[in-house]
């Protein structure tokens, strides 16, 4: 039962993170050239996974896979924010 609670909390946290990161890139980093480069989602995703690794190491249910999924979520959110900026600039 506790595993399900951890899994639900991780899923909700990742969903909220996706929305917040996408909006941050779209609104705050709209005019930052380096945030609009093609490699930025990759860099953000890798750094997020590395930053999350020590945190999830302390949780017994969540492991390294959770950190990797979080990195993927961050990278996809940055890419989505970049696409929305491109649509706004048309």
Describe the structure.
The chain has 3 helices and no strands. The protein is mainly alpha-helical and 90 residues long. The chain has one domain. Helix 1 packs parallel to helix 3.
Descriptors:
90 residues, mainly alpha, 3 helices, 77% helix
How would you concisely characterize the structure shown here?
The chain has 90 residues and is an all-alpha fold. It is 77% helix and 0% strand.
Secondary structure topology:
Layout: H1 2-27, H2 40-57, H3 64-88
The coarse overall form would be elongated
Q: Main beta sheet, described?
A: none
Q: How many domains would you count in the coordinates?
A: 1
Q: From the helix content, strand content and strand pairing, which structural class follows?
A: mainly alpha
Helical content stands at over 70%
> H/E order of the elements?
HHH
**Radius of gyration, CA atoms, in whole angstroms:** 14 Å
Please, how many helices? 3
Number of strands: 0
What amount of the residues lies in strands? under 5%
**Uncertain ranges:** none
Intertermini distance = 49 Å
The overall average pLDDT, rounded, is: 91
